[in-house]
Amino acid sequence: MTTDLKEQKQTADTASITFNGKSVSLPVVRGTEAETAIDIEKLRSSTGLITIDPGYGNTGSCKSAITFIDGEKGILRYRGYPIEELAAKSTFLEVAWLLIHGELPTKDELGGFTKDVTIHTMLHQDFGRFFDALPKDAHPMPVCAAAVGALATYYQKPESDQQAHDTIIRLIAKMPTIAAYSYKHSIGQPFIYPQNRLGYTENFLNMMFSVPCDTYEVDPVLARTVDLLLILHADHEQNCSTSTVRMVGSSMANLYASIAAGISALWGPLHGGANQQVIEMLERIAAEEGSADRFLAKAKDKNDTARLMGFGHRVYKSYDPRAAILKKACNQVIERVGVSSRLLEIAMNLEEIALKDDYFVSRKLYPNVDFYSGVIYQALGIPVNMFTVMFTLGRLPGWIAQWLEMRRDKDFRISRPRQIYVGSPKRPYVPLAARG
Ligand code: CMC
Questions:
Q1: CA 51 to ligand 1 center in whole angstroms
Q2: Which of 8, 19, 21, 207 is the most exposed place for a label (fewest CB within 10 A)?
Q3: Does ligand 1 have an atom closer than 6 angstroms to the CB of 365?
Q4: pLDDT tens, 344-353?
Q5: In what order do the strands lie in the sheet with 22-30?
Q6: Half-sphere exposure of 207 (CA within 13 A, CB side)
């Protein structure tokens, strides 16, 4: 199946570039929400010029019909549905279907999807040996990336539409099992098998916290909170890890390999790893008796590498709508589990001071999704090194949807940016003996 994303949204407008006395007229495209772009596909062939845009802040890498963000207004929608409504009314599996298929599922579709996911949660028994080969103190993120890549060794097949469907089910079904096993491995406990009687997030919590010699009852409120967190992380258009998934997939690499690369990209502290850094920052401030002002001074100091983690975003230049939802959920969870809210208090205090401080206001730096998610994960008993893995569980359907959209685009091409070379001009080879 292919989709024609290219022909959609061409406008009558053009933009001109004049270079070396010659003008070229480039087409202008406009999206559903009136975002506008110059289509530079013919720029190089007609002028010899390329564009340079470090960090791609002004570059649209694709047309996409999956997620819309208006960073100035703090809007996030999946397939047209506002994140606030999805967070309040849907479930993670429903959102996963929506992202992948483009429409909310019917009752039958959701029932079938849930059943398929439920019966594919087990890992091949040989996978135990994979975990045994890794050091006990391995961070769960590279473990997850390696495990997802290794799934391709069990299910190597060219991808017809039916096989792509099976791969998608397997990935969504097995990811919580891989995540929980990576945690159990790190603490030396036996793996807990998935159970078909449990829902998606209940099953994950059970595999994380159950032990063979004891009973563990999943609290439905906490399971719903995890579901909410997964919904909020499910897609975020062309961020670093999603662009990685598309980039790797554009070489015709299979879905497992592409997702494994996405997990590696997500691990970085400026992307998915920020939630872990937020908690570490809050704990440091707590240990130093609430030195919020002192920490903010360091975050503002250009000679200091400290940043206010969980603040700022490439796209949001106002409050991240996901952070607003999580801030409310924080209080509920902390009340439910009866833990100390010291870190939440520090976070709220930091936010209050930062949002009045000219440094943060003038740069439009607001709390992002990670500012409050870490506090919730900690209240849920999720260990700090698993925070980014939680992000991975949530982002998986978004990665899949974006990968499918790219591969089904009829104008699909391998990703291959250019560069401006600034190295040495041509020079003769110097033999080793003459190099001193
Ligand atoms: N603390 C202090 N200063 C900051 C921060 C921060 N958290 N974020 C940006 N700035 C400053 C930055 O120093 C720069 O100042 P100046 O103009 O004086 O040089 C200005 O604000 C613009 O920052 P930038 O680094 O050019 O912005 P960016 O769009 O390249 O980076 C970001 C976005 C998210 C990487 C950055 O804001 C950051 O490092 N935030 C902390 C890490 C974080 O919370 N990451 C999670 C992002 S949300 C989850 C996800 O989608 O992955």
A1: 24
A2: 21
A3: yes
A4: 888 888 999 9
A5: 10-19, 22-30, 36-38
A6: 26
Query: How far is it, in rounded angstroms, from Cα 436 to Cα 432?
Result: 8
Say how many C-beta atoms besides its own lie within 10 A of residue 21's C-beta. Answer: 5
Regarding the domain with residue range 219-396, which homologous superfamily does it belong to in the CATH classification?
Answer: Cytochrome P450-Terp, domain 2 (1.10.230.10)
- Half-sphere exposure of residue 414, counting CA atoms within 13 Å on the CB side? 5
Catalytic: 357?
A: no
Q: Which amino acid is at 94?
A: E
Which bin fits 76, alpha (ψ -120 to 50), beta or left (φ > 0)?
beta
DSSP, collapsed to helix, strand or coil, labels residue 126 as coil
Q: What is the mean pLDDT of residues 88-108?
A: 98
Instruction: Give the domain ranges of the chain.
Output: 9-51, 219-396
Q: If you measure from the C-alpha of residue 272 to the centroid of ligand 1, how many angstroms do you get, rounded to a whole number? A: 13
**What stretch of H or E contains 17?**
strand 10-19
Residue 370 known to be catalytic:
yes
The protein residue whose alpha carbon is closest to atom 26 in ligand 1 is 314
Residue 326 Cβ inside 6 Å of ligand 1? The answer reads no
Q: What are the φ/ψ torsions at residue 62 (nearest 5 degrees)?
A: -165, 170
This prediction has a pTM of: 0.92
Could you tell me if 325 and 331 are in contact, meaning their C-beta atoms sit under 8 angstroms apart? no
Say which of 313, 358, 409, 411 is annotated catalytic.
313
Residues 260-282, mean pLDDT to the nearest whole number: 92
271 CB within 6 A, ligand 1 = yes
Give, as one character, the DSSP assignment of residue 385. Answer: G
- Kindly state if the Cβ of 386 falls inside 6 Å of ligand 1: no
The 3-state secondary structure of 160-188 reads: CHHHHHHHHHHHHHHHHHHHHHHHHHHHC
For ligand 1, say whether the CB of 314 is within 6 Å of any of its atoms: yes
